[in-house]
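Subject: Interface between my chains keeps coming out wrong

I've been trying for a while to get a sensible model of this assembly. When I model each chain on its own everything looks fine, but I need the whole thing in one frame so I can look at the contacts. Pasting all components below, labels as-is. Any help appreciated, I'm running out of ideas.
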Amino acid sequence: MAQFSLYEEEYHPSPLQRTWHEFRGSHVAFVGLIVLGIFLFFSLFAPLVAPHDPIAQNIDALLIPPSWEVNGSISYLFGTDALGRDVFSRIIYGCRVTLGSSIILVLLAMLVGVTIGTIAGMMRGVRSSVINHLLDALMAIPTLLIAIIIVAILGTGLVNSMWAITLALIPQFIHHTRSFVRAEMKKEYILASRLDGASNRQIFFNSILPNMIEMLVVQGTLALSIAVIDISALGFLNLGAQPPLPELGAILADGLDVAYLAPWNVALPGLTIFLMVLAINIVGDGLRSALRKRLSH
Amino acid sequence: MFAGFVRRCCVILTTALCVAACSKSPQDSFYQSGIVYCSESNPVNFNPQLDTSGTTSDATSHQIYGRLLDFEPDTGRIIPSLAESWLISDDGLTYTFQLRKDVNFHTTEYFTPSRTFNADDVLFSINRWRLPSHPYHNVSGGRYPYFESLGLAENIASVSRINGYRVEITLQRRDSSFLANLATDFSVILSEEYAQHLLNRGVPERIDHFPIGTGPFKFDSYRKDHYIRYQRNDNYWKNEVTAEQLIYDITPKSSLRLAKLITSECDAIAFPAQTELEIIRNRENLLLAEKPGLNIGFWAFNTQRPPFDNPDVRRALAFAIDKNTLLEAVYFGSATRAKTLLPGASWAYQADADDTAYNPVLARKLLDDAGVEPGFTMTIWAIPVERAYNPNAAKMAELIQRYLADVGIRATIVTYDWTTFRRHLREGLHDSVLIGWSADNGDPDNFYRPLLSCGAIPSGTNRAMWCNNDYDKLLNQALQTEDTAQRKAIYQQVNRLLYEQLPIVPIAHAYRYRAYRDELEGMTINPYGGVRFGGVSKAQ
Amino acid sequence: MITILTRYLTLFVLTLLVLAALSFSLAYLFPGDVLTNLSGITPQNEIQREALARQYKLDQGYFFQFIHYIGQLLSGNWGYSFISGLPLRDEIGIAMPATIELSTYAMLIAIVIGIPVGYYAGMKGYTTADHTINSISLFSYSFPVYWLALVFILVFSLELGIAPLSGRISLLFDIPNVTGFILIDTLLADGIDRGLAFRDALHHMVLPTLAIAIITTAAMIRLTRRSVIDVLSRPYITAARSRGLSRWQIFSRHILRNALLPILPLMAIQITTLITNAMIVETLFSWPGIGNWLIQAIYQRDYPALRIGMLAVSTLVITLTILIDLFNRLIDPSREKYERGTV
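Reply #2:
Try treating it as a single job with all components included. I did that and got this:
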């Protein structure tokens, strides 16, 4: 006997699918995603993509202009720097260091922030407004300042600058998680699970977390663009990654000494950081408007 | 509608830019009244007796102070300055100086002199570093590195005043480089009256921070990391056309100095980077002065730290690097390869001296024999400032780092800001350091003694912390010898000893450059020592 | 009203106390001698050392040391810079206004341009004009500020030669530091051509101000636009529209004020970004501000300077943030605590 299905005609995409659908509708956002994908590909497969060793110096090829210029050489696509290192390979590896470390630190900040935020949101005792206020006020301290202090205590290095930025990013995750959890806890489906005897833990993992993922993705992209800018800024100021580690900001700072002689050493790493941040921002913007459209329907 | 809006925005922006940008009239005579010199770093204080760093003497020696004698800019001959004439006794031990009259000390907001320059000032200036019992000896630390490294204080038996304008100096031993030492940047003449005035007020240390001298410029104000401001000394004894104001704009980055020279925010810059020389030569309104320099860039090992106390380890490291590559990559052909401490311009230069050659296999073998395992880590300290002898120590350090990696040594590069760097260096915290020396006069003793003699360890110019009695004996023997050929032969023995011991690896002798805008009139480049702005002005 | 004021005052004092405690603990956390980190003086001998230790109450418990530290801060004795040996209060007194000046002009530009453009884009929501403005602002917002400043220097200073690239004013002008704001100080200075000096200062200010302002303006445009679009979707706008009010009437009566309210707290966050950007740009333009000063201090490991510099900058940022928050609370009591926004 044929199965009678009342809902056969209707297709119910999940909320995530609907957001994705909205997102794909925006061409700009989609292009942004592709560009970001390329950067991610570079980061993951840097050794395969890069034609040269990023720290191998070549005395016979100092400051060769990029390949599109008259004196350029095709074997050095983006030219070479003052130590004869291939700029293209350095940028590819730079993506890996900059984007990779940014992603790691955003995930770390997210983990810590969500944990604290959830605890603060679910437990009523921790609602002391003084502490919240204090946290809010303290989170206004600029990342650069936190980084300077951490560098002063622990010394320079990529990992130390990552700690500084993680520390600066945690508060915003706490803040968003706390408000989200608190709003969600007032909703009826949570009350229903509670009546069914679910523990706080179960409520969080089965009901709140799935709903929170979208918020986290949006906040994550936002944090990622800040992280990329900050990590390269610290590298640029020589407070983060140290030479010869190819980090985009540090590469840019290296190029500064020959900025007038070999402008591509400044222009290309800078352009890469810019494109990376732009791609992340476009994707983040696209996600947010997709989310907003879905909710308003 | 939208296009119109954008256009309006653009118009507003451009107008705003233009109001600010197009309003400056660079022809305004005000901008011609002063000279801005972009210097590379902060002076430690304003008394070059206390410091051997070129930055301190550049900012003080020829600007604020005068010396008894000077070097003639073109020939390097010793010429009269505050001393009008001098006599040397037949035994070569007694020097008598006739002093110039009517030389005024600076009148500033903080001091008004009541008398002109005389013998008391010479006595004060020399006795301050010579006599440990002098009331000013211990002011500002009590270290006089240049004089200490030459052992000059011990060699002077007495300094006495014959009359107000005549001074007699007697030596213990003959010293063929004595007059040259009095003409260096460090042998400046301070005001005895000002010192007395400060002592009465109980603030003697001010003498080194608020200087009074006889030079072409008066000190006005100093802000660390920003500027030093000088005013013209209108009572200067020499008749010269000099700009009303002199400003040192402290700009540590060489690329930024060049940029400021191009935008005419600076009229002259210190130490243009070797990579930038072509740009300066090719630009219409910029001039580049160059001279072969009396300097040496080297790689010194801290011989008091194991395993660098072993000459074989030092030899191995010397064999591990390719000096020619360093020359090309760091100096871009503006330097010659150094075999010994002395540059080719010195009369004692030895063309056939032994030199180490690039041989990583031998290097590894020597290291194995000395028991230095692969994976051994060491530090390379790289000076944070550009110097003629090493325009880019960080880059050289990176290159050496790679060479050392090839022989299984992991090197880390260490750098601090200049003041901290030198403090730590003096404390001997380094394994090895890339640094150098610019001579203060043309005498070979000015290279050998400050750089590697035992006496130069406490004064902080012996970066290898190396002390060898044979070496010191040879140097003293050379100073006693008047005959140039004999002296040269002794220095060849010294070179041999250094080649066997290798406390430092000589790398390069660089050319000296100074870049300035073509409006500047009267700029010269000294063969020895620092920059000089007396007699320099801007074309109206 | 009084309760709100008291609450904010308590909050403010508490935050400052926490900051002071942080700054005090830095003296212990930084490498080196605690006494030197606190005072900036390297004792020459044991006797001096003991005298100093007693003066800084290092022989007593942490709590008493901290109390003493607060007293020292309040009385203006902030210690000495390790490297230059100058009193830190004087150094900060020169550096801080320079940064505030730069940030103020950039913020003014951002407000004067960003808010109207944001309103315009919001009113034109989802049209071509809006998309264009939105894209441009997203574009400008993505610039790393140090790179933008570098490009400015390369193009405007070195290629075109229309703007200087370093400092606040040509060093030939000897301007005494009165207010710390160079534009005002040039007008107060004696014995120079004031007009010439003022123009010179303005000329030096263009590039750094623009470099910071572009990014802040972009953020401002996006904030305003979002807020206007949100207000436009409210039911009362639909109601107003159905009553036949013209677009201009709706704009002036309903949107103008209502859209501005939510932006205010978001501006507080922008201030942090703005000051961070200003601090970075200062190092490129050799602007003698607090950012440049702090970066120099870290390069030179000047721990006393870092300890006080951190306190000074965070106090500035937090004072501004709390003031804006308070202002916002006073004009719009209906709001809960300040909300964090996204750009």
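Reply #3:
Confirming on my end. Confidence is low (pLDDT under 50) at residues 337-343 of chain C.
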